[in-house]
Amino acid sequence: MQRAVLVGCGAMSKAWFEAARTMGDIEIVGVVDLAKERAQARIAEFGLTAAIASDNLSAVLAKTNPDLLFDVVVPGARHATVAAGLDAGCHVLSEKPMAETMDEARDLVGRAGKAGRIHAVVQNRRYLAQIRRIRQLVASGVIGEVTSLHCDFFLGPHFGGFREEMRHVLFLDMAIHTFDAARFLAGDAASAVYAREWEPGNSWYSQGSSAAAIFEFTNGAVFTYRGSWCADGLRTSWESSWRIVGSRGTIVWDGHDDIRAEAVTSGKDGLFSGVTAVEIPPLDASHRIGGHLGVMQDFIAASRGGDAPETAGSENIKSLAMVFGAIQSAESGRRIEITI
């Protein structure tokens, strides 16, 4: 049984408590929030009668000596929270984004390395079964080498609150899921980007609700992203709609349940190469799924001596760099080299 402290009791924290309860071998011994009454409410809601409620993280860490820290704080408090957990000898699992700046992200990667502890990020979309199936199909080589990936994300949610006031809202608040998925599907990292943001006349956002980006990957593949959070009608899924083009075929995914693929056979059919439909195999049992729970299970396994989680900070920083690179390009109007 591992002991954990959870920090941040906003709406997102409920999924964390539920995932920890589902796993069953994690004891939450401390719950911290700036509003102590919210920590007390979560303790009561999940029957954690032995847990300490507090508004002081340092005091709880000193008193409980936990193995794990679950970081569900707002991004502005992330660096200090993760640093405190690593300094206390905890393995840390954080909400996304892993940091507010690249400098902070680099610092956390360095701190985790020096402490000999794991810092991972809840990049839960890559644990969806359909994304796992597509990655499995790409890795099989059936469409050859990936030469380009293309995705569309078009929704019109009226969130209210902070999102409608924040700058770079689409890139900062949502696109990291898509960018991380592109990295995962391509098995590669981005090396450069050219991006643009704009605000349509019907937008109810302050800035950055609509955007496009062209990423160059290190192996020569190109990833294009088109998106909007003020696009009414004919919505895509929250996971985007995708086309993955390879040297020997193509995969398309509607972002829901429909995955289709065709691969080159032999000979020509008039102007075009002959192709045939590819059966989409079921997911191999070795691939963990489960969204938030899947991320937590990989993190816990790693904390017990297993393989490093695929969303470890040293990997997730590559997705974060895509976000900040796109923002820098949109602000400057220039192609930006992406560095970690």
UniProtKB/TrEMBL annotation:
<protein>
    <submittedName>
        <fullName>Oxidoreductase</fullName>
    </submittedName>
</protein>
<dbReference type="InterPro" id="IPR036291">
    <property type="entry name" value="NAD(P)-bd_dom_sf"/>
</dbReference>
<dbReference type="InterPro" id="IPR055170">
    <property type="entry name" value="GFO_IDH_MocA-like_dom"/>
</dbReference>
<feature type="domain" description="Gfo/Idh/MocA-like oxidoreductase N-terminal">
    <location>
        <begin position="3"/>
        <end position="121"/>
    </location>
</feature>
<dbReference type="Pfam" id="PF22725">
    <property type="entry name" value="GFO_IDH_MocA_C3"/>
</dbReference>
<dbReference type="GO" id="GO:0000166">
    <property type="term" value="F:nucleotide binding"/>
</dbReference>
<dbReference type="InterPro" id="IPR000683">
    <property type="entry name" value="Gfo/Idh/MocA-like_OxRdtase_N"/>
</dbReference>
<dbReference type="Pfam" id="PF01408">
    <property type="entry name" value="GFO_IDH_MocA"/>
</dbReference>
<dbReference type="InterPro" id="IPR051317">
    <property type="entry name" value="Gfo/Idh/MocA_oxidoreduct"/>
</dbReference>
<feature type="domain" description="GFO/IDH/MocA-like oxidoreductase">
    <location>
        <begin position="131"/>
        <end position="252"/>
    </location>
</feature>
